[in-house]
TrEMBL record:
<comment type="function">
    <text>Catalyzes the reversible oxidation of 3-phospho-D-glycerate to 3-phosphonooxypyruvate, the first step of the phosphorylated L-serine biosynthesis pathway. Also catalyzes the reversible oxidation of 2-hydroxyglutarate to 2-oxoglutarate.</text>
</comment>
<dbReference type="Pfam" id="PF19304">
    <property type="entry name" value="PGDH_inter"/>
</dbReference>
<dbReference type="GO" id="GO:0051287">
    <property type="term" value="F:NAD binding"/>
</dbReference>
<dbReference type="InterPro" id="IPR006140">
    <property type="entry name" value="D-isomer_DH_NAD-bd"/>
</dbReference>
<dbReference type="GO" id="GO:0006564">
    <property type="term" value="P:L-serine biosynthetic process"/>
</dbReference>
<keyword id="KW-0028">Amino-acid biosynthesis</keyword>
<dbReference type="InterPro" id="IPR006139">
    <property type="entry name" value="D-isomer_2_OHA_DH_cat_dom"/>
</dbReference>
<keyword id="KW-0718">Serine biosynthesis</keyword>
<feature type="domain" description="ACT">
    <location>
        <begin position="458"/>
        <end position="529"/>
    </location>
</feature>
<dbReference type="InterPro" id="IPR045865">
    <property type="entry name" value="ACT-like_dom_sf"/>
</dbReference>
<dbReference type="Pfam" id="PF00389">
    <property type="entry name" value="2-Hacid_dh"/>
</dbReference>
<dbReference type="InterPro" id="IPR029752">
    <property type="entry name" value="D-isomer_DH_CS1"/>
</dbReference>
<dbReference type="Pfam" id="PF01842">
    <property type="entry name" value="ACT"/>
</dbReference>
<dbReference type="InterPro" id="IPR029009">
    <property type="entry name" value="ASB_dom_sf"/>
</dbReference>
<dbReference type="InterPro" id="IPR045626">
    <property type="entry name" value="PGDH_ASB_dom"/>
</dbReference>
<comment type="pathway">
    <text>Amino-acid biosynthesis; L-serine biosynthesis; L-serine from 3-phospho-D-glycerate: step 1/3.</text>
</comment>
<protein>
    <recommendedName>
        <fullName>D-3-phosphoglycerate dehydrogenase</fullName>
        <ecNumber>1.1.1.95</ecNumber>
    </recommendedName>
</protein>
Length: 529
């Protein structure tokens, strides 16, 4: 029995490993203790990899796995060390486990906040390691009544806000991507003015690390802060510019900082460690037994489903989030792929552009449709290498322009999708709709009104509209023992007709050639869906 290989690149809870071991379709390789060069060799054969923040999914990693790997499961939240566009380009789906470590990170943030206010690690060290009993040295501050600024009010930031309210703090949130009520409903003030955050007594950051957030707090922002401000970072190294943070702590402008994450990890040589007004932890935000158990189990389940091709939960680079699209869209996406495939077979030449238009409610999903149409249109020329994740990249690499258009509602159909495929030889335009929500119907091919399901072996026979043609075509196909299952005819205003003939078996080139030699024939094409 063929097995799927899942390589676990970093340490995860044993329960996750057991889940992988117990599945008889999975061959699990535990590679967390391997050096990175050996890892690159092992992952070459993997269908799926499970990683944490210690494994960079960078160019080297992607080069090693491309062509074989289907998915990467980041056993945690942050994907800043995963080259998602690079993975997409190679058709690798990237998933994370977004909420299993939320509470662990929230509680570590509260730990840092309290530790900073009471200088707890230092008083502990004084007594425990230096055996000094000097109570007057350790006057701290209370959280009660202090103003807390929370940057990023998502899963972790919002819960830090709620817990801080229980400490009777005055909490204000800055997150331009949420509805203000997410904060105000839990008694937290909401601001879009970053200066409101800079004027707080304590500031904590909980955003992802990306181009917009890296260095979000630098020397200029620190200069605007209150003297004696306390800064917490349990999200990602680099959100606070480390040099500016160091200078601020050294000068005393920042009284204390609680830092779990660093620009470069492991951070054993980081200059921040030389300071004596900082609480540090070695990226422990997710390190609770509960969190690691849940993450490992979820990551293993996601990896198994992905390896078997069943589902891709929490995928970050699929063109659509399946959980968010309405049910009526799915059959359209499937049909879009078929129409793309049909059009490419009817118009066999290098593709120049693909244009997908939508009318009705489906118009809103025209970008997702375009991805599916592109997969269909390039299936013949790209084979197994094209999928929903890399379709846009493959099209771009081949110089194919993919366009979309949202058009006004059709007077006839509730929803209508039109695919225009232009090659350097010809243009094919096909419109299709859905009857009774799930019956796929092509209703127009290049201006010929038809009513045909995109399915099976299809001969598309265009002719001058003169008597006797249907009979000739029927006789010729019968002579080649090709049985007609369905025959649909469309006419245009120029006295031409298009027959879409669905046949029971494959049609050979000789038969197609003889069809094209019939007097009335203008063109013949053949497609298999
Ligand atoms: N230290 C750890 O071990 C640890 C553990 C878990 C998560 N994390 C990190 O914590 C961070 C937050 O995780 P989460 O689960 O809350 O994520 P989340 O996606 O639920 O929340 C992130 C929030 O940041 C907001 N945001 C994005 N850009 C912003 C900007 N420019 N300004 C203000 N807000 C912005 C988003 O709108 C979102 O609400 C991530 O970076 C994650 O990697 C660290
Ligand atoms: O983003 C995360 O989930 C945390 O930073 C945890 O990272 P880790 O899995 O490497 O501990």
């Amino acid at each position: 029995m063929e097995k799927y290989k899942i390589v676990v690149c970093d340490h995860i809870h044993e329960e996750g490993l057991n889940l992988l071991r117990r599945d008889d379709k999975i061959d699990m390789v535990f590679a967390a203790d391997m050096d990175k060069t050996a890892l690159l060799d092992v992952i070459k054969e993997a269908d799926v990899a499970i990683t944490r923040s210690s494994t960079d999914v960078d160019e080297k990693f992607i080069n090693a796995v491309k062509g074989k790997m289907k998915a990467i499961v980041r056993a945690g939240v942050g994907v800043d060390n995963v080259d998602i566009p690079g993975c997409s380009k190679e058709g690798i789906i990237v998933m994370n486990v977004p909420t299993a470590n939320t509470i662990a990170a929230v509680e570590l943030t509260m730990t840092h906040m309290l530790s900073c206010m009471r200088m707890f690690p230092y008083s502990h060290d004084h007594l425990k390691n230096q055996r000094i009993w000097k109570r007057e040295k350790w006057y701290g501050y209370e959280l009660k009544g202090k103003k807390l600024g929370v940057i990023g009010f998502g899963n972790i930031g919002s819960r830090v806000g709620i817990r801080s309210k229980a400490f009777e703090m005055d909490v204000i949130a800055y997150d331009p991507y949420i509805h203000p009520s997410k904060a105000t409903d839990v008694g937290v003030k909401y601001t879009t003015n970053f200066d409101d955050i800079l004027s707080c007594d304590i500031i904590t950051i909980h955003t992802p690390k990306n181009k917009e957030t890296v260095g979000m707090i630098g020397a200029d922002e620190i200069a605007k802060m209150k003297d004696g401000v306390v800064l917490i970072n349990c999200a990602r190294g680099g959100l606070y510019d480390e040099d500016a943070l160091y200078d601020g702590l050294k000068s005393g402008k920042i009284r204390f900082a609680g830092i779990d994450v660093f620009n470069k990890e492991p951070a054993i040589d980081n200059k921040l460690l030389d300071l004596d007004n900082i609480c540090v932890s070695p990226h422990l935000g997710a390190n609770t037994f509960e969190s690691q158990y849940n993450i490992a189990v979820e990551a293993a389940q996601q990896a198994i489903e992905a390896a078997k091709g069943i589902a891709y939960p929490h995928a970050l680079n699929l063109p659509i989030d399946e959980t968010k699209i309405p049910a009526f869209v799915k059959p359209f996406l499937e049909m879009g792929q078929k129409i793309g495939f049909l059009a490419s077979q009817m118009n066999k030449a290098p593709i120049v552009s693909i244009k997908v238009s939508g009318r009705g409610d489906i118009a809103e999903y025209v970008n997702s449709l375009a991805t599916f149409v592109t997969v269909g249109a390039l299936a013949d020329i790209s084979g197994d290498t094209i999928n929903y994740v890399n379709a846009d990249f493959v099209a771009k690499e081949r110089g194919i322009k993919v366009e979309t258009e949202e058009l006004p509602a059709s007077p006839v159909y509730k929803n209508l999708v039109t695919v225009k495929l232009t090659t350097d030889k010809d243009v094919i335009e096909i419109s299709a709709t859905m009857f009774n929500d799930d019956v796929q119907r092509i209703v127009d091919i290049n201006g010929f009104g038809v009513d045909v399901e995109p399915k099976g072996n299809m001969i598309l026979f265009k002719n001058t509209d003169v008597p006797g043609v249907i009979g000739q075509v029927g006789t010729l196909l019968a002579a080649h023992e090709v049985n007609i299952a369905d025959f649909r005819l469309g006419r245009n205003k120029s006295s031409e007709a298009l027959a879409v003939i669905i046949v029971d078996s494959a049609v050979n080139d000789k038969t197609l050639k003889e069809l094209s030699n019939l007097n009335a024939c203008i063109s013949v094409s053949y497609a298999r869906i």
